[in-house]
Design brief:
By secondary structure, the chain is of the alpha+beta class. The chain has helices at about 30-45, 100-115; strands at about 1-5, 10, 50-55, 65-75, 75-85, 90-95, 100, 120, 125-130, 135-140, 145-150, 155-160.
C-alpha cells in the first residue's frame, strides 16, 4: 500500500512593504498574510486534519524562489510547511516532509487483517515522516500479535509493510 501526501497550491496575496533600492523587484509578504494563506491552503489540502495554530517567522525570505518554513499544528501535532514565492507574486505551500495519516493507515491495516483485528499506531493521528523514520503499528485480536511498519522513502512516498 502506498500513500503519497503533498500539499500544493498557489494564491496571490497583497504584496507588503517597499524596502530599499537594493530590494527593488523582490517580492515581499507580510508574515500574517502568509499565515492566513497557509491556514486556508492547509485546511483545503490537509485530508481532513484539524488545522490549529499557524506561525511563520517575522522576517520572511524575499524574492522569487525564496522559501520560508512555518509551523502548522495538525490534530495537535506541530508540523513544518515550506512556503515558496513563485513568479507572479504567488505562493506555494507544501509539507516539509510527507504527512502520514495514522488513522487511515490503521483502518487499511485493520481491513486487511480481517474481522476482530484492532490496530494501534501510537498516540497521535498524524506524523510528519522524515526519510527513514519508522512508526510501528500493533495488530491484535486475530491470533498472535503482529506488527506493521510505516516508513517514508526519500522521494516522499509513505509505505506500510509487515514487520
Amino acid at each position: 500500500m502506498l500513500t503519497r501526501v503533498t500539499s500544493m497550491g498557489a494564491l496571490a496575496l497583497v504584496v507588503a512593504g517597499c524596502g530599499t533600492s537594493a530590494d527593488a523587484g523582490r517580492v515581499a509578504y507580510e508574515p500574517r498574510a502568509v499565515e492566513r494563506y497557509l491556514t486556508a491552503e492547509v485546511a483545503r489540502t490537509a485530508q481532513g486534519f484539524q488545522v490549529g495554530n499557524v506561525a511563520c517567522p517575522d522576517k520572511l525570505a524575499r524574492g522569487v524562489g525564496a522559501t520560508t518554513t512555518c509551523a502548522v499544528v495538525l490534530e495537535g501535532v506541530t508540523t513544518a510547511y515550506v512556503v515558496q514565492v513563485l513568479v507572479g507574486k504567488r505562493l506555494e505551500a507544501r509539507p516539509e516532509h510527507p504527512l502520514a495519516d495514522l488513522r487511515k493507515i490503521a483502518a487499511q491495516i485493520t481491513e486487511k487483517a480481517g474481522a476482530g483485528a484492532a490496530v494501534t499506531c501510537g498516540p497521535v493521528s498524524v506524523v510528519q515522516m522524515t526519510p527513514g523514520q519508522r512508526v510501528v503499528c500493533a495488530i491484535t485480536g486475530v491470533g498472535p500479535e503482529r506488527r506493521a511498519v510505516v516508513t517514508a522513502d526519500p522521494d516522499g512516498t509513505i509505505r506500510v509493510a509487515d514487520a
